[in-house]
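Posting for a labmate who doesn't have an account.
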Amino acid sequence: MSAEGHEIHGHDEHGHHDEHHHHKDTFITKYIFSIDHKMIAKQYLITGILMGVLGVGMSLLFRMQIAWPEESFGIFKVLLGDKFAPNGVMRNDIYLALVTIHGTIMVFFVLTAGLSGTFSNLLIPLQIGARDMASGFMNMISYWLFFLSTIVMVMSLFVEAGPASAGWTIYPPLSALPQAIPGSGAGMTLWLVSMAIFIASSLMGSLNYVVTVINLRTKGMSMTRLPLTVWAFFITAVIGIISFPVLFSAALLLIFDRSFGTSFFLSDIFIAGEVLHYQGGSPVLFEHLFWFLGHPEVYIVLLPALGITSEIIATNSRKPIFGYRAMIASILAIAFLSTIVWGHHMFISGMNPFLGSVFTFTTLLIAIPSAVKAFNYITTLWRGNLQLNPAMLFSIGLVSTFITGGLTGIILGDSTLDINVHDTYFVVAHFHLVMGISALYGFFAGVYHWFPKMFGRMMNKNLGYIHFWVTAVCAYGVFFPMHFIGMAGLPRRYYTNTAFPLFDDLSDVNVLITMFAIIGAAFQLIFLWNFFSSIFKGPRAPQNPWRSNTLEWTAPVEHIHGNWPGAIPEVYRWPYDYSKPGHDEDFVPQNVPMKPGEEQLHH
């Protein structure tokens, strides 16, 4: 880095900055204990992808069990062993454990850490014009705590009695009494330890993102010139700081109940005729604490995906994003409302009906900013000069699943309607579309769009098209029919429905869903191949492959610690000057000064 680079780098994160550049980075300081935000982003990305493979693999196992109950499968015998799948037939307790760990991995390790950790780390410094995160060291610690929590969670799969199996929401008393079910023993303790470490990691990351956005923006980068991606990551981090500590306290109190004889969540309980000594606690208290994180969590997962989509849709429509300020306002409104809707998960917990009506009202309100975002995406696409590359297709797919998944949310947000379908597959269909699939589409869109920035190479476009179309068909093939079996009353989390003759007609639908799931999962192998082979063999990426306006494309393709070799670029305009009259090109990067007489559209 040049000497002038040092003067600019006034806020030295590391005092040894000078010597740091004279000796060569070793393998360990470059790839393992790195404090460079770009490398940490890759660590999050690859860890998230590997956990995703594990989470999806589990869902295939329990989908096979639902479609063909009591059948013997060789793969069950191989993967689950004789203890959990005697003669290849899955036992009911391991079914619940698979559902539990699948939910935990996908929600926290893939969609929260994999999405936010990757793209917040990669894009915040590059898009605001900063040399790095506010604290590179804290950033490194946050990744390693996340990695440690994934290791502890995977370890819980190998304890003797089996992993946690009280559902990913781990409601007591199942999760609070070690003797309640086989998975309530050591597996449950490891689950709680893993989540406590994960929350510490998440909070360190979030604090870092917030401080970086507030303090390290380059000259001219006002808050109203930030790309919507950075707005989304910034507000996501704020929601995380507000709500994750509540889950931490719930996990801590649950550990006390399990191991130290307290009774925060337990009241008069009998097991096999034996009266336990617990009294005075309330399992519903745990539900309140859990969902106070659990609902904002949906937006911690969704907002980064929506931010990524805003950037990609504007870039590939070759026109300014529609309603920039309305988009920011809707992100802020979603952040505020997400903290006062948690009770809609608890309509059947015996809640006072008046309180239920209050939560119904706030839940229906959150549909308004969500609709603003959906309409703004559609208006941006309208009459745009669309470049339908894989990233753009996944972004448009996200708009589709966000709308279809959101519409059923209106039904579930209404207490009178929710009570009828609450514990059925209707809920599974709703939240997988709106949170699972939408967030995964955002994740894929971001990977296809910023892969050249991360690895300096291009991914194969044709494989990307195959990946998108098969995934899109299979995602709807899996979750669309679930609405109907849910309306027909099929309960969720049952490992077989053969005991209920009234559900016999629905077994064919479950087979269809499982077939779609297997095909969809198989085609993710195309993405994995495309991703890992392109890192080494993909064609070299040009400086600005998508002709985009944001600052990250002004940094050199070859990564350097500090992002820009000389001065940091200054910012003169907002990030969405596409197809602007009076310019030769159809895009004007943010660091291009204004011409005389040129006015800013969004003011």
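Reply:
Got it, the structure tokens are right above this. Strands lie at 270-271, 274-275.
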